[in-house]
Amino acid sequence: MSEKLLDYFEKEKKYDEVIKIIDKLILEDPEKASSLLFRKAEALVGLEKYQQAITTLKVYAKDCPNKEKIKSYVLIVSCYMNLDNDEKAEEYLVKILEIDPENDIILKQLSYMAYINQDFERCCYLIKILIKIDKADIEDYTNLIFCCIQLDMIDDALKYAEKVMELDPTNLDVFATLTIVYENMDDEEKLKEVCQRIINLKDDGTLQIILLKAQAYLELGKKEEAFEFVNKAIKLNPYDPFPYLMKGLLYNKLNMFDEAEECFNEAFKLNPEILESMEKLS
Q: Are the beta carbons of 164 and 141 closer than 8 angstroms?
């Protein structure tokens, strides 16, 4: 009877009743504890009693098989994230990885946490495991490229950028990254090659591709086409500061500093915080 009531209360999300029944069942037969503790933890999570759920799950995980241990650790991670304790969440993600080293979901989660915490070496390490087990997606590769650039591993960044373009020949983020890398390397031949590929991309009318094409045309010495595209961006997005910012950068490259300053001032009017973006682009 109690088992049926337990199923009913779980279905109805009456978690206080679920916990009462589980505690009663464990008291009557302590040997049932191992099979009921996880359900009790789920009920505690439903009541947002995350710390109590963690304590319960730690007891449950001590003697259960690895499959159940992983399930417990996943729920513990969720609890710690709800408690805004990323450090402890990461600790249990690592524990899962120790049991299942090729768990791509956990690898992705850990690599993302490393990425946002700017732990670029760890992020690279984890994404390379994903690549090795053939589970890396375009976002993973894009993050890896950024990390490689931050670590001054330019050859690796270029290698992975080429891989992304094999997977997605229209990936604008990678094209933008490559133009910056090749420009910093003073590799004019490669820069022109990338710019030509950008120009050959289909113009889908999005702001990113219009501005990227404007930049590419100027790199190839096609000033008229460059300003045609950046003016198109301004016409389509008159209240967005980025077209004005890009136009200013184009003028800067042509040493037309007065015109550049006018464009930058227009961008600042639309968004006073644009200075931060400008510093990143400079």
A: yes
Q: What is the pLDDT along the chain (282 residues), one digit of tens a residue?
A: 577 888 889 899 999 999 999 999 888 888 878 889 999 999 999 999 999 999 999 999 988 899 999 999 999 999 999 999 999 999 999 999 999 999 999 999 999 999 999 999 999 999 999 999 999 999 999 999 989 988 989 889 888 988 888 888 878 888 888 888 888 788 888 889 889 988 988 877 889 899 999 999 999 999 999 999 999 999 999 999 999 999 999 999 999 999 999 999 999 999 887 766 555 544
**Secondary structure of residue 138 in the 3-state scheme:** helix
The CA distance from 221 to 6, in Å, is 74
Q: Are 15 and 47 in contact (CB under 8 A)?
A: yes
In contact, 156 and 125? CB cutoff 8 Å: no
Question: Of all helices (H) and strands (E), which one includes residue 237?
Answer: none
Q: How far apart are CA 5 and CA 24, in angstroms?
A: 12
Burial 253-277 (b: 16+ CB within 10 A, else e): eeeeeeebeebbebbbeebeebeee
All structural domains of the chain, each given as residue ranges with its CATH number in brackets, are 1-83 (1.25.40.10), 101-168 (1.25.40)
Q: CA separation (Å) from 19 to 9, 182, 196? A: 10, 61, 65
